[in-house]
Amino acid sequence: MKKYFIKTYGCQMNQADSLLVSSILNNAGFERTENINEAEIILILTCAVREHAEKRALGEIFSLSSLKKKKRCLLGILGCMAKSLKEKISGGCLKENFCDFLIGPDNYRQLPEVIEKKLKNCDQQVLTIIEDEKEETYSDFLPAFNNSEIESFVTIMRGCNNFCSYCIVPYVRGRERTRPFPTILKEIDFLLNKGSKIITLLGQNVLGWKNYDENNQFLEFSDLLAIILEKFPSLRFLHFLTSHPKDLTFNLIEKIAKLMKKGRLIKEIHLPLQSGSDRILKLMNRKYTAKEYYEKIKYLKELVPEVSITTDLIVGFPSETEEDYEATVEMVKKIQFNFAYMFKYSERPYTTANNLFPKVSEEVKQERLEKLIKIQNEITKRKNEEMINKHYYIIVTKKQNGESWGRAENNKLVVVKKELTLGEEYLVKILKIDGWTPIGEVIKN
């Protein structure tokens, strides 16, 4: 039985794809190993959303190229970088034999065939399969499962139709496709029977999910949430990523808030703002204003005061002025995000923002990013400290060195300084914050 090793970079979608790839290969008679030295096939599942992630992956790929030659194993590149790497090979920027095959996100079904072909004929030519499959959702595959996984991802849609001017996703992951409703329920049932307690629904824009049930009844995203929570009482926490502000209507906010207040839908929403400047938001093709974003967050907080709001922010977008940047800073101060992922703008292939001018210098981008990080870190610290002396239900997801980690109802990971039972639910009191981590003690299980 041929053994394969997977190294995964990037977002939760890639983590879910890693288990999908394992399922496809396991079904074809291959065996996954966590020891790279045992592997006859090495797979790198790549991310191309930001330049930094791409450079990290490239560094790993080049270091593994020498291992490939030394131990004569196959090296395959999967995922979002496959398309750009193919073009770099064609343009002469990369040696053609640095890997054995390139497979795009819509073409994982062909992996077993590609591997068998390369094992039989290990020539210098790179096999590339990077085609947009407009109907592909892999809904007939159940993910490979590790029995210690208390938290699991379920992909409910693939691709994206938003075409934000800075974003490569629609070009490398294709157009938006909704996964059929019955197959989502089937996968959740499978994961719960294997021991999962926490499910996160994944998509580039989950709020846009629409489908039909077995009676041809039209369903929206809020219906999907409600049905999952009703159908699976053993599911302790349900979560979802990622949401687009333009699709978070006031009606949807009310429905989500109602489910959050029942206690099993995690009281957190990740809602990327990107910029607080309306001019920049328009250039980004985000399809909302800063005021519209703020009013939606304000309404959600009115309905669920304890809700946690996290976001993404980009500084140094082409033509961003000091005034534009300060508008972002003011929004951050006004909204008081619990946490933010903050980045300098980086050019991505195929995106329209590449053609926007003037460019912001690296020095200015770095200065703005550092200032924003400092402001947000102070807010995050204060938000975390608000948890002290409060009680939260947690599900234990990990144990190590006499300590336990548990996912709380606000999506924070809480550490308890004793070994608890994996997968069990406990009520904890937060004693202090260590760095960014809440430290708690058990009140009852």
TrEMBL record:
Cross-referenced PANTHER family: CDK5 REGULATORY SUBUNIT-ASSOCIATED PROTEIN 1 (PTHR43020), MITOCHONDRIAL TRNA METHYLTHIOTRANSFERASE CDK5RAP1 (PTHR43020:SF2)
Database matches in InterPro entries: Elp3/MiaA/NifB-like_rSAM, Methylthiotransferase, Methylthiotransferase_CS, Methylthiotransferase_N, Methylthiotransferase_N_sf, MiaB_methiolase, rSAM, rSAM_horseshoe
Annotated Radical SAM core domain residues: 146-382
A Pfam family that the UniProt record links to this protein: Radical_SAM
Protein known as: tRNA-2-methylthio-N(6)-dimethylallyladenosine synthase
EC number(s) from the headed UniProt entry: 2.8.4.3
Domain MTTase N-terminal: 2-120
Keywords of the record: 4Fe-4S, Iron, Iron-sulfur, Metal-binding, S-adenosyl-L-methionine, Transferase
The protein's required cofactors: [4Fe-4S] cluster
Claim: Plastid is one of the keywords in the record: no
GO molecular function terms listed in the Swiss-Prot or TrEMBL record: 4 iron, 4 sulfur cluster binding; metal ion binding; tRNA-2-methylthio-N(6)-dimethylallyladenosine(37) synthase activity
GO cellular component terms attached to this protein's record: cytosol
